[in-house]
Amino acid sequence: MQDLLHQPWPWYVTGPVVGLVAVGLLAIGHKPFGVSSNLRHICAAWLPGNVAYFKYDWRRDGLWNLVFILGVVAGGFVGGVLLANPHPVAITPAAVTSLAKLGIHDFSGLVPRELFTLHMLLTPRGFVMFIGGGFLIGFGTAYAGGCTSGHGITGLADLQLPSLLTVISFFAAGAAASFFVLPLLVSR
Amino acid sequence: MTATPVQRQRPLGVYLAMGVLFGIVLTKGELVSWFRIEEALRFKGLYLYEVFASALAVAAPGFALLKRRGIALPPKAFGRGVRYVAGGAVFGLGWGTVGACPGPLFALIGAGVGVLAATVVAALAGTWTYGYLRPRLPH
């Protein structure tokens, strides 16, 4: 039983639960599932400045979603700490080989331990990775009006053409970054 | 942007519980795993694609059923489509560089990967910059 709780979930459980969260939010609260709008809500709450994009009632439009991501942080603790998988992630041998070429050899945990450290953040490469990458995520999701959840799940499942366009674009750019940018940042 | 046709009041605890469930599925389903994301982006495994396909297989009929009952998602204006291609590309570059998208960023902080708090702050700066430049950007 203990072992069962700590095992990672297979795709055919994970995917449908993600789908249920999206449908549940719409059914229960008439809310569109999407995480990146929270970045806008936080800006609107803390530092709206004189920017029209941040001048709206964030409590009415976004409080539910901010509470939702608070739950996501708590759920991350439950799933990633309390129920953590003690074994290395079961990615394909081809993926292991590909990442080993970049100098990644520790496949335990959710992220490479040697990379995701405060020390790395203070190096030029780490700064590009964590700060540069984060900036692009925030800028791009706001520009596109959604991310992997809002466009990738909600928009696609609602058969919206803008979402299909966005998903194709971010997958292509994500692959390009993984092939061409990541090696510059992690290889030693 | 987030306005829905019908506003419905629910206790915030409902959204907290849904968020906890989503955080658990993100971590237990390894959607927050840097290794899983890179596996997918390097086309070295099907896991992430299987998750996406099965999530859509549940969400699409769910949304269609709700639409019949008059509960619909707000349609996204197509415009010239520039924002979707350009915004998607900028987001994708960041996603492939960090190896996490917004949902997983928050879940990973909960899972103890503290350095990503800096990434969230940087993402806020990115969103703020977009808001500031918005009138001058093609959409």
Care to describe what's here?
The complex is a heterodimer of chains A (188) and B (139). Chain A has helices at residues 2-6, 11-29, 37-46, 58-82, 93-100, 118-121, 124-144, 150-157, 161-186. With 188 residues, chain A is mainly α. The model of chain A has no long low-confidence stretch (mean pLDDT 96). Chain B is 65% helix and 0% strand. In chain B, helix 1 (12-28) packs across helix 5 and helix 5 (102-110) packs antiparallel against helix 6 (116-133). Residues 1-5 of chain B have low confidence and may be disordered.
Shape of chain A: globular
Structural class of chain A: mainly alpha
Average of the residue pLDDT scores of chain A: 96
Distance between the termini of chain B: 14 Å
Mean pLDDT of chain B: 94
Q: Total number of helical segments of chain A? A: 9
- What share of residues of chain B is helical? 55-70%
N-to-C order of helices and strands of chain B: HHHHHH
Major beta sheet summary of chain B: none
Helix content of chain A: 55-70%
Output the structural class of chain B. Answer: mainly alpha
Low-confidence stretches of chain B: 1-5
What is the β-strand count of chain B?
0
What's the end-to-end separation of chain A, in Å?
42 Å
Number of strands of chain A: 0
Major sheet details of chain A: none
Strand content of chain B: under 5%
Entry keywords:
heterodimer, A: 188 residues, 0% strand, B: 139 residues, mainly alpha, 6 helices, 65% helix
